[in-house]
Amino acid sequence: MQEAGIEHPWAHQALAAEHALDGDSVVVATGTASGKSLAYQVPVLSALLDGSEAPNGRGATTLYLAPTKALAADQCRSVKELSQPLGTAIRPAVYDGDTPFEEREWVRQYANYVLTNPDMLHRGILPSHPRWSSFLKALKYVVIDECHTYRGVFGSHVAQILRRLRRLCARYGSSPVFLLASATAAEPAVAGRRLTGLPVVEVADDASPRGELVFALWEPPLTEMQGEKGAPVRRTATAETADLLTDLTVQGVRSVAFVRSRRGAELISVIAQERLAEIDRSLPKRVAAYRGGYLAEERRALEAALHSGELLGLAATTALELGIDVSGLDAVVIAGYPGTRASLWQQAGRAGRSGQGALAVLVARDDPLDTFLVHHPEALFDQPVESTVLDPDNPYVLAPHLCAAASELPLTEADLDLFGPASSDLLPQLEAAKLLRRRPGTKAWHWTRRESAADLADIRGEGGDPVQIVEASTGRLLGTVDAASSHTTVHDGAVHLHQGRTYVVKHLDLDDNVALVEPANPTYSTTARDTTAISILETDVEVPWGEGRLCYGSVEVTNQVVGYLRRRLITGEVLGETKLDLPPRTLRTRAVWWTVTEDQLDAARVNPEILGGALHAAEHASIGMLPLFATCDRWDIGGVSIPLHPDTLLPTVFVYDGHPGGAGFAERAFHTAKEWLTATREAIASCECEAGCPSCIQSPKCGNGNDPLHKRGAIRLLTTLLKEAP
To answer: Most buried in the list 209, 433, 472, 516, measured by CB within 10 Å?
Structure first.
């Protein structure tokens, strides 16, 4: 530490290290750039240094888990720098899908600080635990970085993976201490306990010095263009962000623009490069895009260029937010609210890393939530970050992990406490499905199949094998896209951006999971159109709201992409629609829904002619506002509104989790329904438009082209419903 120029750690670093050395699992929940890495590296490196005196040179080991490959690679660099004075006593190594096979055996046998991700732990390390026995036997610490990202279905999967890890460690005689780090989390000790299944001590008082952060809320201006149904159109957040990134680059300001989508990151970098070329021919190469789906060597080259200062501006998805410890950034531009206050502060905190002042700009997209936030800054600055929502007992999550655990070591009655109370109910179902078999002699459950049980769990909810994007003329692999989003992003005719180059999809082959593309320069982008039907499987809870009802339970959602729109690039103006023939997808999940009666409709002056539009508008706006109340964004959830639903026989609005078995978002909506729907009504009513626009009731992902919608009907309907809310 002294060689690294650190004479005295900050109080929170010392306290976290003290707990770790005492054998207490601990979560450090302090601000971005508050030295959380050092808080866990000190006890970890001390333990590894002591262990290096063992006969095999590896008397203690540490496993580091990051949500992304980039962050693991970056932390490996950091550990090497810090431990350089210690010689060969500390042997860090990255073990993930990019690790060459010839290196993997060395990592298993000799590395004492292994850096990986939950995916590799789930599919590579735990199923092969006999080959990792010497490492697991000596496992002293498990570091879980950016632990606030483990939420929803992904977080629930990671919670079960950690329980499988603890079970195998116990088999090999070790009981590792868990060290968790999170820049932004509400109730971090509660979230840490839910994630690890162990008591966790909280260290949340940040003692690090902070530079001044100037935070700007930026609403793009209205244009002269008209959108769907003649609605006024604001300049897009993408175009505004590209302009800001251009201006910052020209002034030599080191900046990152965080963008929601891979496509948005590509588009912003292209626009910025074109504008910079008009100013100075040397500037375009100082700006680039960074996103998931790139090949490993492309990612590493971009990370190195950003570290060296060769790149001044980067348009990046959250793959970078959780990727590299960027030092020396002067500004962060956030293109659209990232879905949670936790993510907002995580991204904004990337600026001003050396204690100097910095700038953060939130550029509002044209949607209900972003518009609400720029006009109600107190909702951002006066509210705590959200609680981390995860449910390890979700049967769609737990069942495949019980199978994976049984394939690693036969499951016994004694193991069931570790995996949670729902496991004993699931085991008979897994036996009936002939996935597990209980042998009478051993009274243990065994995995019955030849294939890997780990393949049953799709931990990131990507819905199957990724689709490979291949250049048709050369056969070159450009990247991948997850199966769940392939229907909407790489359908026939879709425009696909990759590292500033534009391609059009010639054919999506669902049998071989390949999208064939060819280079092109279209003047438009594409947006998928889909239809959704929903049926109620079981109602868990029902609460009367006057004559209406608020319900929560299980549903089955059937979705089908039926076509796509071509939109002009900068303005979003619709140029035309093309039909598609893709198979439907079904999803069993959890939902919250509310119904209204004829008397309530009469009281709200909502007649049959405008009923569909009023329900549809309320549904769109409520989906847009839910991220204020649950740890999700609007792409995690879906909705359906029906004037006469066959299961309720009443006008009904559904909002559902977009993940099998649910992710906890709809349940959170049910428990905060009054506040959530009140904010929804206020967001619609306070919008200045006449008949509805993207700032209030139009949705960017509406499968029906935002038709029908009725703004005033939605306001009256929600007002009537809320009058009788308990």
So the answer is: 516
Rg of the chain (C-alpha set) = 26
The two counts, helices (H) then strands (E), for the chain are 24, 28
CA distance 240 to 654: 34
Where does 313-367 have alpha helices with state H?
Answer: 318-321, 341-348
Per-residue pLDDT of 336-345, as tens digits, reads 988 778 788 8
| Residues 271, 258: Cα–Cα separation, whole Å | 15
For residue 475, count CB atoms less than 10 angstroms from its CB and return exposed for 0-12, middle for 13-18, buried for 19 or more: exposed
620, 726, 614: which is closest to 671 by C-alpha? 726
Hey, what long-range contacts does 51-54 have (CB within 8 A, 24 or more apart)?
51/112, 51/138, 51/140, 52/89, 52/90, 52/112
What is each CA distance from 564 to 219, 316, 524, 529, 624, in whole angstroms? 28, 26, 12, 5, 22
Q: Please, are residues 722 and 678 in contact by the beta-carbon 8 Å criterion?
A: yes
Per-residue pLDDT tens over the stretch 479-506: 888 887 889 899 999 999 887 789 999 9
| pTM score | 0.75
Q: What is the pLDDT of residue 552?
A: 98
Could you tell me if 410 and 442 are in contact, meaning their C-beta atoms sit under 8 angstroms apart?
A: yes
360 vs 213: CA distance, rounded Å: 7
Q: What secondary structure does DSSP assign to 96-121, as a single string?
A: STTS-HHHHHHHHHH-SEEEE-HHHI
Nearest in space to 725 (alpha carbons), one of 497, 547, 460: 547
Sequence length of the chain is 726
460, 119 Cβ separation under 8 angstroms: yes
Give kind and range of the element (H or E) at residue 402: helix 395-408
Distance from C-alpha of 89 to C-alpha of 84, rounded to nearest angstrom: 9
603-613: pLDDT as tens digits: 999 999 999 99
> Between the CA of residue 486 and those of 469, 508, 510, 526, 582, what are the distances in Å?
10, 8, 9, 13, 11
Higher pLDDT, 356 or 136: 136
Is residue 362 within 8 Å of 217, Cβ to Cβ?
Answer: yes
- Strand-pairing partners, residue 404, are none
Closest C-alpha among 112, 132, 104, 58 to residue 408? 132
- Per DSSP, helices labelled H in 626-710 are 665-671, 673-685
Helix/strand/coil for 150: coil
Q: At 696, is the secondary structure helix, strand, or coil?
A: coil
Which residue, chain included where needed, has tokens 């008082």?
Answer: 205
**What phi and psi values does residue 150 have, to the nearest 5 degrees?**
-85, 80
- CA 674, 680, 683, 685 torsion: positive or negative? negative
Write the DSSP assignment of 230-283 as a string of letters: G-EEEPPHHHHHHHHHHHHHHTT--EEEEESSHHHHHHHHHHHHHHHHHH-TTS
Amino acid identity of residue 472, one-letter, is A
Compare 50 and 214 and report the one with higher pLDDT.
214
Q: Sheet of 201-203: strands edge to edge?
A: 92-94, 113-116, 61-65, 139-144, 177-181, 26-28, 201-203
581 or 382: whose pLDDT is higher?
Answer: 581
Average pLDDT over residues 396-405: 93
- Contact at 8 Å (CB) between 144 and 65? yes
Q: Give 109's contacts (C-beta < 8 A, 6+ positions apart).
A: 134
What element of type H or E holds 298?
Answer: helix 296-308
The two structure tokens encoding residue 132: 């990792």
Tally of CB atoms within 10 A around 42: 21
Beta strand 232-234 with 222-226 is antiparallel
Gap between the Cα atoms of 594 and 654, Å rounded:
7
The angle that helices 237-250 and 262-279 make with each other, rounded to 10 degrees, is 40
> Other CB atoms closer than 10 Å to residue 87's CB: what's the count?
9
> Residue 460 has which token pair?
């990131």
